[in-house]
Amino acid sequence: MSMLRVKAIAKKEFIQVGRDPFSLLMAFLMPVMLLVIFGYAITLDVNNIRTVVYDQDKSAESRELISRFRDSGYFTIEAYLQDQRDIDRKLDSGEAFAAIWVPNDFSKKLQTRIDSPVQIILDGSDSNTATIAQGYILAITEQFNAKFGGVRVAPRVDARIRVWYNTELRSRNFIVPGLIAVIMSVIVALLTSLTIAREWERGTMEQLISTPVKTRELILGKLIPYFVIGLIDTLVAIGMSVFVFDVALRGSIVLLIALSSVFLFGSLSFGILISIVAKSQVLASQMAMIGTFLPAFLLSGFMFAISNMPKPLQVLTYAIPARYFVSIVKSIFLKGSTLALIGVEALLLVVYAVAVFVVANRKLVKRIM
Fold this sequence. Notes:
Blueprint: H1 3-18, H2 21-41, E1 49-55, H3 60-71, E2 75-80, H4 85-93, E3 98-102, H5 106-111, E4 119-122, H6 127-148, H7 172-192, H8 195-202, H9 205-209, H10 215-243, H11 253-278, H12 281-298, H13 311-317, H14 321-335, H15 343-363
Helix pairs in contact: 1-10, 2-7, 2-10, 7-10, 7-11, 7-12, 7-14, 8-11, 10-11, 11-12, 11-14, 11-15, 14-15
């Protein structure tokens, strides 16, 4: 292998990228935009649940119960209704997600130690929010019962829960690190998927074929500029995660950058492989989006737990490199994991990167088809 020829191809590709405003825009602006949009838009936290109240009792006890919902920070009281039929109208129109209906004998039953039913209606069209809201409701009513329910029997099991790694249970703390893996896998594969296809479409591939440049030198030369761009984007994404989204980086940034480089090399090689197979920039970009974004977003464990997926899909996830990188990034960010703890995922990333590069090298044939 001649490093002089690799350097020449890399220099040519750097010039090509510099002359293409679309590539520059996609390389540097798109990762930032996607991280900001997804970082703020995707959240599993449920706050400010729009709630209406129909209080027939209007007693001190009913006001106490309603104030507990309001002061919890999870429920926002939008309106106090005067008619039962308004509950249906508010829920049907989407003006409210929850409705609290306190009957007129609530305080009387409470004072006589009789069960005091309170009806709370939730909009089940958003099952995730409804499920989380149910947990909030149970916690609030349990606290209310502890104050007004009299003497309670102490439980035999005293469970004291302590959360490690994400003590605040902020969904952003594990979503944003996962976003780095998803966004970078898409961007770098999309950029390199156009390289070889561009040469075929512009008729310059014939000139490269006539030169003494070997296939692996051509691939490495084309990878280098995009590897540098991908590394810069990764550093920007890490910086935004820490300073913009306030996600603590508990592990080694050197280890994170080193394993990110392995992942970038594999994703870039996959993009080159797509470009070799497609020979068309439009087809290559479409294949890159389908082959990276959907698997990385849906099957990497970024949004949905792999253990909850059907068995065939769980097996399929082992072929998706984003699965291992998402796990690595989350472990380094949240747990401060060392290489000894994430060694298996790191090894599989190395195997994937080498395998894809070898396949791309075999697939690129220096002759006119």
